[in-house]
Amino acid sequence: MIALTRKRTKSGRRSRPRRRQEPGWRQTLRFSPYAWAKLKFLRDFGGTEVGGFGISNAHDLLLIEDVVMIDQVCTPVSVEFDDASVADFFDDQVDEGRSPEQFARIWIHTHPGSCPSPSGTDEETFVRCFGSADWAVMFILAKHGATYGRLKFNTGPGGETQLRRTIDYSAPFAAADHDLWSTEYARRVTVLDPFAMRHGTFPDSDVRDFRPDSPDMGASCDDSPWNASEWVAS
Ligand SMILES: [Zn+2]
After folding, report:
1. Core vs surface per residue 101-110: b (16+ CB within 10 A) or e
2. pLDDT-based confidence at 11, cuts 50/70/90?
3. 88 pLDDT exceeds 50?
4. Residues of 190-224 as b/e, b for ≥16 C-beta within 10 angstroms?
5. From which domain of life does this come (predicted)?
6. What are the structural domain ranges in the chain?
7. Distance from the CA of 96 to the center of ligand 1, in angstroms?
8. CATH topology of domain 27-191
9. Furthest-apart CA pair in the chain: how many Å?
10. How far is the centre of ligand 1, averaged over its atoms, from the C-alpha of 51 (Å)?
């Protein structure tokens, strides 16, 4: 039997037991062990940011069972998804029987540094590319494990809440597959060195300024969120 005792203060009076602090979280974003292991593997495979979409359980949309990468151009401070690859991903997911709520609502990317907080560019991307969906999640995994998650509702009165992150071991899950994941990484990720680019290593047609504050960023979006090519997250 465990007895709870109250400590005495210096004055000899018993102190009040500390009330457990209520966390500010209202919702929890859960990852299957497979999805979480894959996300960490992809984060650490190269030196840049990488991104993708979370694939949700059909009956529990805040349970992520896989993380799927899109063709992307990455630097240490940015990710840009390829529009055609996003379209292909959508087609493939529909063909596999999933609804858009399962594959197009949870945007995930990594930060090579230790800070998971979204940048101004992240916020702008979240609004522009996910603002037309009923709801969407932005989730960021930083280098040493710190995470940031936010669920945003765009319908009705709107609203948003921060998300706690946890790993859900309650259901059966697949084993890690580093060969498969590294193949996916190699197929999807193109790494660009922005410093080399600025020094003219790349052909003129490929030269773009990938600094987050570049006026290039966000300059070419149109009405369709999936045609907006600035999948940039820094
Ligand atoms: Zn970011």
Report:
1. ebbbbbbbbb
2. low
3. yes
4. eebebeebeeeeeeeeeebebebeeeebeeeeeee
5. Bacteria
6. 27-191
7. 29
8. Cytidine Deaminase; domain 2 (3.40.140)
9. 77
10. 9
Q: How many residues does the chain have?
A: 234
Ligand 1 centroid to Cα of residue 142, in Å, is 9
Q: How many other CB atoms are there within 10 angstroms of residue 134's CB atom? A: 12
Residue type, 16: R
Q: What is the mean pLDDT of residues 212-233?
A: 33
Q: How far is the CA of 103 from the centre of ligand 1 (A)?
A: 20
Other CB atoms within a 10 A radius of the CB of residue 92 amount to 12
pLDDT of residue 15: 56
Answer yes or no: is pLDDT of 105 > 90. Answer: yes
Phi and psi angles of residue 92, each rounded to the nearest 5 degrees, phi first: -60, -40
Q: Which two tokens mark 69?
A: 């990468």
pLDDT value of position 214: 33
What is the distance between the alpha carbons of residues 25 and 27, in angstroms, rounded to a whole number?
A: 6
Around 53, how many Cα atoms within 13 Å sit in the side-chain half-sphere?
Answer: 24
What are the tokens at 225? 């969120």
What does residue 147 show for φ and ψ, rounded to 5 degrees? Answer: -130, 160
Which amino acid is located at 216 in the chain? D
The CA distance from 37 to 48, in Å, is 18
Place of tokens 């946890």: 166
